[in-house]
Amino acid sequence: MTKIALLILGFWSFSGALAVWGATSPLPLTSAQQVLDLGVERTRHSPLQVRVEGIVTYPDATANMIYVQDSSAGIRVLYTNANYQPASGQSVVVEGTAVAGLFAPFIDCSNVRVVGASTIPAPCIAPAARMTAGELFGQWVQVEGVVRDVAKEPQRAVLFVSSEGLRFHAVVQPFPAPDLPVEWLDARLILRGV
User: Fold this and answer.
1) Confidence class of residue 25 from pLDDT cuts 50, 70 and 90?
2) Phi-psi category of 5—alpha, beta or left, where left has phi over 0 and alpha has psi -120 to 50?
3) Cα distance between residue 185 and residue 146, in whole Å
4) Which residues contact 56 (CB under 8 A, 6 or more apart)?
């Protein structure tokens, strides 16, 4: 019994020594879908390195945040090299860490490098029920609905939309027009965004 315990203890010590001696860490995740597939719980307990190439679908001018779509999915990215704001349609390489978010994992503490320009991919047709359930978070989507109310803030408009029996709000920013777009009331719109 003592020999078995020593053998197991010796194995744990050896595997710990490998980490100390610089054993290779896992390869970084290379697609947005791989990050999303981790789920919130796994990323909460063990953040992993990520290197994703994709297209900026939406830059948030109020934060160091962009949404990036690759061939697999879309994802939120918080970046730390804040000396510039990437723009929609730019091809970027994102290197960061997969971490837990409220609805889905996202990429945090990342370095974003612009490598070219492209067109934003076709949006995923998004039923309102899936979006209000928190699905498709960070994805480039398209939803159809009727505008029931409109509000204007200094740099954005907020549309209250009814679609498939559900109500949600859509934020349009930047929205530099000085007037409230009241002509949009009761209009049927196709909204594209994140």
Assistant:
1) low
2) alpha
3) 8
4) 66, 67, 68, 86, 87, 88, 89, 90, 92
How many degrees, rounded to 5, is the angle at CA 79 between CA 75 and CA 82?
140
The residues facing 93 across adjacent strands are 53, 113
Q: What percent of the chain has pLDDT over 90?
A: 58
Are 28 and 45 spatial neighbours (Cβ–Cβ below 8 Å)? Answer: no
Q: What is the CA radius of gyration of the chain?
A: 22
Q: Do the Cβ atoms of 59 and 52 come closer than 8 Å? A: no
- Write the CB contacts of 127 (distance below 8 Å, at least 6 apart in sequence): 143, 164
pLDDT at 71 over 70: yes
Type of residue numbered 12: W
The yes or no reply on domain 32-117 and CATH 3.40.605.10 is no
Sign of CA dihedral 113, 38, 127, 150: negative
Residue range 90-144, pLDDT digits in tens? 999 999 999 999 889 999 999 999 999 999 989 999 898 888 887 888 999 999 9
Q: Quick one: how far is CA 192 from the chain centroid?
A: 16
Inter-residue contact 156 to 173 (CB < 8 Å): yes
Mean pLDDT of 28-57: 93
